[in-house]
User: What shape does this take?
Amino acid sequence: MENNPSLSISDSDFTKTDNIEKLGLSILSIGLVTLMLIAFKTVFYLPHLFSTGGILVLTGALLFIFRKHLKHQPGIQNNHIWHTSITSGGFSGWLLAIAVTSFYIIIYWFPSLLNNLVKAAGPLSFFLRGKEADRWFLYGTIYTVMILIMGLKAILKYRHSNYQIVRTISVMFFQLAFAYLIPAILQLFNQPEFYFNYFWPLKYDYLFPSTVHSLISHPGGLGVFMVFWGTMMTFIATPILTYFFGKRWYCSWVCGCGGLANTAGDPFRQLSNKSTTAWKIERWIIYSVLIFIIITTALLWINSYQSGALLGSLSKGFAKTYGFLIGAVFSGVIGVGFYPIMGSRVWCRFGCPMAAILGLQQRFFSRFR
Assistant: This one.
């Protein structure tokens, strides 16, 4: 059923894919096939083939999105959302989950399979960073494009709400500027790559001794400012902002993880388990992750202060274990790959240590407890 009785189109008109939408999907498919051919080395590398595939993907996606949401009046449309396989945890949803999960497994542990696609992203990397592309530049580009495209979709979907429009524009801006362009430009000028919108414990290595020492020792003094910025935001600015605005000032307005969940994950938000049991599991897991990273960071600093005499390699083992289990498997493979079967906030609800800290601050020290 439609939520808004004033809509001028019927339910079947909304769910039906018209010719313009079909054209958009066709262009999108051609672009994806082009990128897949590059990725699996089915075609010879051509300098402009990667950008051509990317432009086709963007053009097709935007054409489909604009037509889909502008052909009806403003208002949330959840027509047949539980009857569509991809948004109800059906067969198509599982296929998408497998595809996204497979991509994350490849990008983390089998990056050589993407060498051709990484090479094809080289011209863009040279333009932005002044050096060859690597797997993380490719991943960051895909991540940012997804937030921008699906962010536009969210704006059109929620265009009746100024709050939703401004919030979505905010996460799009912080991802594009602070998590993509600024880190790239810093590298262009031979400065350390740094993400100013991520803080410890979400960006867990930013308070590790090795990272702090590396930044402080970097010529020019910018590294010192980065350490100061990260420390200040973690221990001073974050509690203050959470007191006045609650935890969502970060999770829904700044964070790239929340940004992807609110944009690319939006079609799957209804799949999130909201039962009391899920809530109890959520609290146990998320606070366990927080304790894990606190202990890991403390051990690394003790080990650094003692020059390894007290703990030896124990602290490094903690760091490697956290990086694998939480930094890669939980936040990446499960946190994003499981959108189509477990909802859009698997990582944010169950694993993010930043959300855990913000939740504690909000509960005990905020006007929004």
